[in-house]
Amino acid sequence: MNYAQKLREEHKARRARLGLVVGSAIVPLSRVRPPQREPEPPPEPELFDEPPSRAEILAIARENYERRRIPDRVRISDIEEAVKIVFQITSGELCGDHRDRRTFTARSAAFWIARKMTNASYAGLGRYFNKDHTSVIHAVNTFPKRMHDDPDLAGAVESILTALGADE
């Protein structure tokens, strides 16, 4: 028995094990189909006594939109002004390239408060303060630990939150 005959015999045995041999004929795999399941019936449509009016549909849509939307409680410019007053820095320092600790702390506070009190994204805050969004992410993530370690900083931030009318 040569190699090709041996392969044919192995192939025939494998098809026999799979039940693909009918009598002496071999059923090609292309003709073997998996068993078909019956399709599930479509769900029954909800029936109304009468369809809702256009005004009712718009009212429901508006209510759903307002429920999902979290309104900004304060503007970023208000946060900027409060941070400038409490930390005694200028807009140029807050939005500029200054890297000293006092300016960095004030900027981080502004990022953290703005992220907490507005719907602004990291990229939006970065555009407003002329910084990259990754700088905003780093500041927002590290600022709580700095407040925990420095009670004076926590007090300054608490005074800003109180002045801006934070709920907490």
Task: List strands and helices in order, with pairings.
Elements: H1 3-17, E1 21-22, E2 25-26, H2 54-68, H3 76-87, H4 91-95, H5 101-117, H6 122-128, H7 133-149, H8 151-164
Antiparallel strand pairs: 1-2
Please summarize what this structure is.
The chain has helices at residues 3-17, 54-68, 76-87, 91-95, 101-117, 122-128, 133-149, 151-164; strands at 21-22, 25-26. The chain is an all-alpha fold.
Characterise this structure:
The structure is a single chain. Helix content is 61%, strand content 2%. The model has no long low-confidence stretch (mean pLDDT 82). The protein is mostly helical and 168 residues long. The protein has helices spanning 3-17, 54-68, 76-87, 91-95, 101-117, 122-128, 133-149, 151-164; strands at 21-22, 25-26. It has a domain at 76-164: DnaA protein, C-terminal DNA-binding domain (Chromosomal Replication Initiator Protein Dnaa, Chain: A), CATH 1.10.1750.10. Strand 1 and strand 2 (25-26) form a beta hairpin.
Please summarize the sheet with the most strands: 2 strands, antiparallel
Q: Order of strands across the biggest sheet?
A: 1-2
Strand content: under 5%
Poorly predicted segments? none
DSSP E strands, number: 2
Q: What's the CATH H-level superfamily name of the domain at 76-164?
A: DnaA protein, C-terminal DNA-binding domain
Q: What CATH architecture of the domain at 76-164 would you give? A: Orthogonal Bundle
**What's the total helix number?**
8
State the end-to-end distance.
87 Å
Going by helix content, strand content and strand pairing, the class is mainly alpha
Instruction: Examine the coordinates and then state which fold CATH places here, giving the name of the CATH topology of the domain at 76-164.
Output: Chromosomal Replication Initiator Protein Dnaa, Chain: A
Series of H and E elements:
HEEHHHHHHH
